Amino acid sequence: MRAAVVLALAWLQAGDLRAEPAARDLTIELGGDLLTHGGVVVVYPIPTSTAAGESGPGAVRIDERYAEVQLRYPRGGTYAYRLRPVAGTADAKAHATEVLSIVGTDEEGRGPQMSAGFEKAYSSGGRVIRVPALAELSGADDATRTDARWGRTQGYKAVPPADRQSARALVSVVEYGPKPATLRCVAGGRRVQVCTVAQEEWTGLTAQWWRAIADQRLGRLEDHALRRCYDQAPDGSTCEPVPK
Description:
This protein has helices at residues 32-37, 134-138, 142-150, 164-176, 202-232, and strands at residues 5-13, 25-30, 39-48, 59-62, 66-74, 80-85, 96-103, 126-131, 183-188, 192-197. With 244 residues, it is an alpha/beta fold. It is globular. This is Secreted protein.
């Protein structure tokens, strides 16, 4: 079950996402390909009546470009989490993440049900968070930062970009692709689960991701062409696709 998603655009500096006083406090460290090339982290807080006495790590690290973090917290209590680059990252203070969407709940206050990790548990909503590529935030010059922000890549070995549209494409492929991705989870005690795409699936997933990016861009070109046609057409005219 996937709840309705409310779109949001907000930047999160390290430490911004807090609830006070916090009964559960988690730092999500960003490293590896996720930090270098950007990607998506989905955070699902899970209320539970048994979390109060459970231990868990104060920090987890994610290197993969897509991850799901499930954080258990006492029902009726509070929680806090923050995302920050791993120690030693150059110009770390400039790093920020972006909320792409807020995951809602149903009429019973339940968000999506977990299919891996804390399997069958219901979240209390969640957030889909984009991690920008380092080049977007601290590239060597304006051109480099602009290319990353717009998802422009060069070379046959380029990996999929992590601009806003491309990050949304990754989410759609993982969750709703022809073959939904298999998530494998690592437990942080009984309090935290970090779930990432199975390594052997990344080659096929990357191909689907590139296809989704291409479909997005083609759709935007078609929309632009249609708007331009109607702007220039006489009143009462219709605009039809012309293959040539």
